[in-house]
């Protein structure tokens, strides 16, 4: 059997490289303002975006260093060296005290923007957890508890962010409101959400929010979330409604997407074709329960195998897991585990599922796995060790399974985030 792992990893790496801040940011950065550049960044690529912004303004445009200030709040382990923009490493997916302080400092700095200053907001996925500023009347512990309940509920990211936006002083357009005195607010974002909805990326801190408090309450009811009475009161309080179109905060605000999941998926599809595979591109916006999507994709792969095709099946998007067990893992590992259960008798099918940010579930550590790979060696180890995939699925314990087979995908922090990349190769 030909080892397809190098190709699987190359396809993943191509998707990540297409969205790296070093590649995508500089072409979208404009001239220096009359006053200062105040750079406020959040998310898993925030440190890398801040460093790229420094190169543009300090090195290319020769801006005086004292005219560039800022704060970049990112995930623990995702910081990079910077010169003028302070990097704060904070909790993700569950917010922590560092994120709380980072968000407070960010709001304060936005409030200092004057009529000659550019407020440059740089966003990547993860910003919702990194920038944590609970609404008045809600404690930090109560906000953390809401986050944990949402993460376990199986709710897609868009619905999670509807609730988050209505319990925040920074999300849902409120950062733009804080920086309303700036000459201009320019937001450059790397999308990690299906359909590239600007109001969902990092929970839309600088754009109008079409969702309402009523929507947030409906999501709490839909998933039967166990929330504190203070949180219920906050979701009933009209003062916590997010900023809507027409708000004066957006009169000088400009939003631009600089990288999309589709660009990264396209890069992987191109490489698969160059490697001699016919391709099926299932799109960059897939959502759904990880094991159910895996079943549909396994069916496609088995059909292609029966027809004697050499096929690559590729997809992006963000899958979810409804947590019923107490194991470790994330949507990509659960998808790969479900595939392993369904494809265990097919040595000529291999697959990779990984989050482009380098972390799939996990404990919020830089060493968390991004996903997993499966192939004939996985199936052989399953058999030799007597591993039953279904038992691990029942406990949502994909990480333990793939630790046993040695198949975890461990790229480390990638410094970007454009959702997941999934590839099945049928030889």
TrEMBL record:
Domain of life: Bacteria
Cross-referenced Pfam families: DUF4147, MOFRL
Domain MOFRL, first and last residues per copy: 312-420
UniProt entry keywords in alphabetical sequence: Kinase, Transferase
EC nos: 2.7.1.165
Gene Ontology molecular function terms on file: glycerate 2-kinase activity; glycerate kinase activity
GO cellular component annotations of the record: cytoplasm
MOFRL-associated domain ranges (all copies): 8-235
Keyword Kinase: yes
Name of the protein in question: Glycerate 2-kinase
Source taxonomy: Bacteria, Pseudomonadati, Pseudomonadota, Alphaproteobacteria, Hyphomicrobiales
